[in-house]
Write a structure and sequence with these properties.
about 110 residues, alpha/beta, Purple Acid Phosphatase, chain A, domain 2
């Protein structure tokens, strides 16, 4: 299985790079899954529903978060949505919005726990 994991996607330049390069890299390297850390994608701190959507449309199968996930409160309802591709940090206590892990399935049927 070939997986691309991107570190921090920071602000508008990071989102633009994801939209441009992830589809190219996916095809060129026959990547099975693409995961990116989105916690700084909204102006360099936090993530909003709009920015999360743009990153996902760039070809990312799953979005991870860190402590900056909480910087933009409007993301909180999206963390709990069924089928959400946005993760929160895994080391947060029970009761924190969202989920800290996921199993994603590639187009070919391979599974990856993140």
């Amino acid at each position: 299985m070939k997986v691309l994991f991107l570190g921090d996607i920071v602000g508008k330049p990071g989102r633009a790079a994801v939209r441009h390069f992830v589809p190219i890299l996916r095809e060129r390297h026959r990547l099975d899954l693409c995961v990116g850390n989105s916690e700084n994608s909204a102006g360099g701190a936090g993530i909003t529903p709009e920015k999360r959507g743009r990153a996902a449309r760039g070809g990312l199968d799953l979005l991870t978060g860190g402590n900056h996930t909480w910087s933009k409160r409007e993301i909180l309802p999206y963390l709990d949505r069924t089928g959400s591709r946005q993760l929160r940090p895994a080391n947060y206590p029970d009761g924190a919005p969202g989920r800290g892990h996921a199993v994603v399935t590639s187009r070919g049927g391979s599974k990856l726990g993140v």
